[in-house]
Design a protein that fits this description.
The complex is a heterodimer of chains A (242) and B (392). Chain A is of the alpha/beta class and 242 residues long. Chain A has two domains: 166 residues, Rossmann fold (3-Layer(aba) Sandwich); 69 residues, no CATH class. Chain A is 39% helix and 26% strand. A six-stranded mixed β-sheet of chain A has the order 6-7-8-3-9-10, sandwiched between helices. In chain A, strands 2-1-4-5 form a four-stranded antiparallel β-sheet. In chain A, a hairpin with a 2-residue loop joins β1 and β2. The longest helix of chain A has 16 residues. Chain B is mainly alpha-helical. Chain B has two domains: 256 residues, no CATH class; 112 residues, D-Maltodextrin-Binding Protein, domain 2 (3-Layer(aba) Sandwich), CATH 3.40.190. Helices cover 66% and strands 5% of the residues of chain B. Chain B has 14 helices and four strands. In chain B, β1, α3 and β2 form a beta-alpha-beta unit. Chain B is elongated, with a radius of gyration of 30 Å. The chains are: A alpha/beta (242), B mainly alpha (392). Chains A and B meet through α2, β6, α3 and α5 of A and α1 and α8 of B.
């Protein structure tokens, strides 16, 4: 369960996030939708504790991300935007390294790594060094790495970027599987269809503010637009340029 | 501590697979150093022998005007050959580098000599050319000797004791030990060890911040439930291991290479036995921490891998500065110097290699002060690793 209360974040003169509040429940998929530069990544980075908010607060399962960031990190698996791998390690070694750092016991690491490799269908290239991997292969390994310690909350920053149709489909299946397991999934995207196909709740962000936060039906009803794209445009424009 | 160990193990393991890291740790320092050293040694041996043994070829214009002088020069191992046609040609030949040096005997030479007025000879050389300058000095020395010999003969002929012209008899006593003469070369050697140490860990230091950031693997790493201090500690530790590896190999390769260098011919008998090897390694241990922390620190300020490489090459040179200054001013080892990292290691190593007694207090000061510097820099690294701007 993820809760965000009115966070602000500025970088120099750029006020990237201006009072974003949202909640993502367990057993649900929450989409963070917004145009480029809307503040999606910054919001997620505050949640996985690499950025501190200037104002407001955020918590993971009730653990504050600022005052108790280490414990908050224990409850999340994160896939930051443009995640990279260690080129001289094999896919399996990359995943196992993170498993060790997450504090998994020696005895369970091998089993757990095997399991996640099977789950993400990376058996075929698990023993190869990751140098020269395709974007799809890299994303799968990064995801395996983020999920290896079986976190309750999963944060994905534009996970489908650069993936082909096949890979996107298998990622979608995985996200649904996580939902069935009762996990809290929060992912960002600028692709509407993707969000519409998956999410229970959608939080549309524009210009650093939440334009609308509701279920798909709710968004349709509130904006009076049947087509989600129209609803998106409507919501984004409602926030305006300033 | 467990996290730091995991990071440490992974960094060591991963970099053992990285050809570039391995090349810089295993080849650059350990092989490049002794080769360059051998090259310089051979060069200086060649030069010092050239001076004494080989006959100096001296073009002389107007040989027939001074047969005695020519004979005298030849007795001093100077081979007189025919020079250019005239003065102008001689100057041109030296200017263009055709000859290094030309001796001119003017027409009036014999006459002036007979009249006992100072007989003029001209020596054409290019003093900006160090090689020619040494040859000119040799010729000048021979001419001066001929000069005093003639003077002595003239005085004797007039019944005057030639010793009147020698109020002083200068005896030079050179107290430098054979191995002491090699200070310059030894200074070079200790810099090689510093260079090899830093080079061995350079790529790991870049990788810890700039490299991870550029590759996009830093952010996922920071999302893990570990503290950043532990991450940077593990990384600095791994950098230290590669630096130590590179240093150990360099010491060993010098130990072997020195056996094949004809150092006795230069009057050098450096002591580079196993005991010196082990002590040197011990002396450099705190310097390894200092180097690893310094390189990691500098790399953490850079925005990209390339920028980090540029800045770290500056770091490679920085430790030479104190050594260079002290060498240029030929300062003797003092207690104050032992507080300066790199300089203290250099001075102590030179003493050991020269077979001179090493002051234990100096060793202690060097070790502790360098260690404190290193720990301080590592602490600053850890602090900087915590800041938000780390992700760029």
């Amino acid at each position: 369960m993820i809760e965000v209360e009115g966070i602000h974040k500025s970088f120099g003169i750029v006020h990237a996030v201006r009072g974003v509040s949202l909640a993502a429940a367990d057993g649900k998929i929450t989409g963070l939708l917004g145009p480029n530069g809307a503040g999606k990544s910054t919001t997620l980075r505050v949640l996985y504790t690499v950025l501190k908010p200037d104002a407001g607060s955020a918590s993971i399962d009730g653990v504050d991300v600022v005052t108790d960031s280490l414990r908050a990190r224990q409850r999340i698996g994160a896939l930051p935007h443009g995640s990279g791998l260690y080129p001289h390690l094999t896919a399996r070694e990359n995943v196992a390294y993170f498993a060790r750092l997450c504090g998994l016991e020696k005895s369970e690491i091998d089993d757990r790594v095997d399991e996640i490799i099977r789950l993400l269908e990376i058996e075929d290239f698990a023993e190869r060094r990751t140098k020269g991997f395709s974007q799809g292969q890299r994303t799968k390994v990064s995801l395996a790495r983020a999920l290896v310690h079986d976190p309750q909350n999963v944060l994905l920053d534009e996970p489908t970027n650069g993936l082909d149709v096949m890979a996107t489909r298998s990622l979608r299946h995985l996200i649904l599987k996580l939902k069935d397991l009762g996990r809290c999934v929060l992912f960002s995207s600028h692709i509407m269809q993707e969000v519409a196909a998956l999410c229970d709740d959608i939080c549309i962000i524009a210009n650093g503010q939440v334009a609308i936060d509701d279920s798909i039906e709710g968004i349709r009803a509130r904006t009076g637009c049947d087509d989600l794209e129209d609803a998106f445009m409507h919501a984004v424009q409602s926030v305006g340029a300033g | 501590m467990r996290t730091a160990l995991i990071v440490f193990a992974k960094e060591v393991f991963e970099n053992l697979r990285d050809r570039r890291t391995l090349a810089s740790a295993l080849i650059m320092g350990p092989i490049f150093g002794p080769i360059l050293f051998a090259f310089v040694i051979n060069l200086s041996i060649e030069r010092s022998f050239e001076n004494i043994e080989t006959a100096l070829e001296l073009p002389v214009i107007g040989q027939q005007r001074a047969p005695n002088l020519v004979r005298y020069l030849e007795s001093r191992n100077i081979a007189v050959v025919d020079g250019p046609a005239d003065d102008a040609a001689a100057i041109a030949a030296v200017k263009t580098g055709k000859h290094d040096i030309v001796l001119l005997i003017p027409e009036a030479f014999g006459e002036q000599l007979a009249d006992t007025v100072p007989a003029r000879v001209k020596l054409v050389s290019d003093q900006a050319n160090t090689d020619a300058d040494r040859e000119a000095r040799r010729v000048r020395r021979a001419l001066a000797a001929y000069n005093s010999e003639l003077a002595a003969i003239r005085l004797s002929a007039r019944g005057v004791n030639p010793m009147l012209l020698r109020p002083l008899n200068i005896d030079e006593i050179d107290v430098s030990t054979p191995s002491g003469r090699s200070a310059m070369l030894l200074g070079m050697m200790s810099y090689f060890f510093i260079f090899a140490t830093l080079m061995g860990g350079m790529y790991l230091a870049i990788d810890a911040t700039a490299g991870e950031r550029e590759r996009g693997s830093l952010e996922p790493l920071l999302c893990l439930p570990v503290t950043r201090e532990q991450l940077i500690l593990g990384k600095i530790g791994a950098t230290c291991v590669f630096m130590a590896l590179s240093l150990t190999l360099s010491l060993l390769s010098f130990h072997v290479a020195l056996k094949f260098m004809p150092l006795e011919q230069l009057g050098m008998t450096p002591n580079f036995g196993p005991d010196v090897l082990v002590t040197a390694l011990f002396l450099f241990l705190p310097f390894i921490l200092l180097g690893a922390a310094l390189m990691t620190l500098v790399a953490s300020f850079t925005k990209s891998y390339r920028e980090a490489q540029t800045w770290l090459s500056v770091v490679l040179i920085a430790p030479t500065m104190p050594i260079l200054i002290v060498s240029l001013l030929t300062l003797r080892p003092k207690t104050e110097f032992m507080f300066v990292p790199s300089l203290s290691q250099h001075l102590l190593l030179v003493d050991m290699v020269k077979n001179e007694p090493v002051n234990n207090l100096h060793v202690l000061i060097s070790f502790v002060s360098t260690l404190i510097f290193g720990a301080l820099l590592a602490w600053i690294c850890a602090r900087l690793y915590r800041r938000e701007g780390l992700l760029g």
